[in-house]
Write a structure and sequence with these properties.
Mean pLDDT: 89
Structural class: alpha/beta
CATH superfamily: P-loop containing nucleotide triphosphate hydrolases
Number of helices: 7
Helix content: 25-40%
Order of helices and strands: EEEHEEHEHHHEHEHEE
Strand order of the largest sheet: 6-7-8-3-9-10
Low-confidence stretches: none
Distance between the termini: 27 Å
Strand content: 25-35%
CATH class: Alpha Beta
C-alpha cells in the first residue's frame, strides 16, 4: 500500500443479491490524503454503494477496504461505528438533519457521540458555524432554513469531529444551481485547506470544477480514472 494513500480498496465486490449483478464489481482504488475525488456514473452504477463501502456502512462481499490505516472490512459493528465517528464525516443529498434539534444541537450531536466533552463540542461547533456563515442561525430549527443553509449545517455536522475523510453523496442534488455552486465552492475551499474528500455526483460541471480527479463507474466497475490536466 502506498504510504500516502488514505483509502485503499483492493478487489472489492459488493453483492446484495447472490444471483444478480454486483453493485460494486472487483474495484481496486487508491485515494491519497488531501485528494478531492469525484465519483460519477449513471443511476444504478454503484456510486453510493462504493461510498458506503468506504464509510463502513456496507461490508464488501469480497476484497479489502483500508481507510486511514485500518482494515475496516474486518472490524466488528461496534468497531466500525467507532471508526466512522472518529475518521469519517458524511454529507447527504437531503441533509439528514434532525428537525426537532436546533442547528447548534444538530452539529453538536456527532461530537457528543464521539465522547467529546460538552464544552469542547460547543466550542468546535461554534467555530464551524461562524466559519460557514451560520452563527445567527444557531438556535433556529432546520425547517426555518433555506436548502443551502441546511446543507451548510450538514457540512458543519460532518466536520465537527475533524474527520480525516469527508464523503459527500450528491451534496448539491437538492439545491438550485446558484446554491449548488456555493456549496461546491465551499467543498473546494475545504479541500484546499487539506481535507480529503470523495464526492458522488451526477453533475459533470461540479466534478470538473471542484474535484482534481474523476472516477467513472459503469455497472459497478471503474471504466476511467482521470486526474485533471489543469490545476483548479
Amino acid at each position: 500500500m502506498d504510504a500516502d494513500a488514505l483509502i485503499q480498496l483492493s478487489g472489492v465486490t459488493k453483492r446484495y443479491d447472490s444471483s444478480g449483478q454486483p453493485a460494486v464489481d472487483n474495484v481496486s482504488l487508491q485515494i491519497g490524503a488531501g485528494e478531492s475525488v469525484a465519483v460519477m456514473g449513471p443511476s444504478g452504477s454503484g456510486k453510493s454503494t462504493l461510498l458506503n463501502v468506504i464509510a463502513g456502512l456496507d461490508r464488501p462481499t469480497s476484497g479489502t477496504v483500508t481507510v486511514a490505516g485500518e482494515r475496516i472490512d474486518k472490524l466488528s459493528e461496534t468497531g466500525v461505528a467507532k471508526f466512522r465517528r472518529r475518521k469519517v464525516g458524511m454529507i447527504f443529498q437531503f441533509f439528514n438533519l434532525l428537525d426537532d434539534l436546533t442547528v447548534a444541537d444538530n452539529v453538536l450531536l456527532p461530537a457528543q457521540l464521539a465522547g467529546l466533552s460538552r464544552g469542547q463540542a460547543r466550542q468546535r461547533a461554534g467555530s464551524l458555524l461562524d466559519r460557514l456563515g451560520l452563527a445567527e442561525h444557531r438556535q433556529a430549527y432546520p425547517a426555518r432554513l433555506s436548502g443551502g443553509q441546511r446543507q451548510r449545517v450538514a457540512i458543519a455536522r460532518a466536520l465537527v469531529n475533524s474527520p480525516e475523510l469527508l464523503l459527500a453523496d450528491e451534496p448539491t442534488g437538492a439545491l438550485d444551481t446558484t446554491t449548488g455552486e456555493e456549496i461546491g465552492a465551499l467543498l473546494a475551499e475545504l479541500n484546499a485547506a487539506g481535507q480529503t474528500m470523495v464526492l458522488v455526483t451526477h453533475n459533470p460541471d461540479l466534478a470538473a470544477r471542484y474535484a482534481s480527479r474523476t472516477v467513472q463507474l459503469v455497472d459497478g466497475r471503474v471504466t476511467s480514472d482521470v486526474v485533471a490536466a489543469v490545476p483548479r
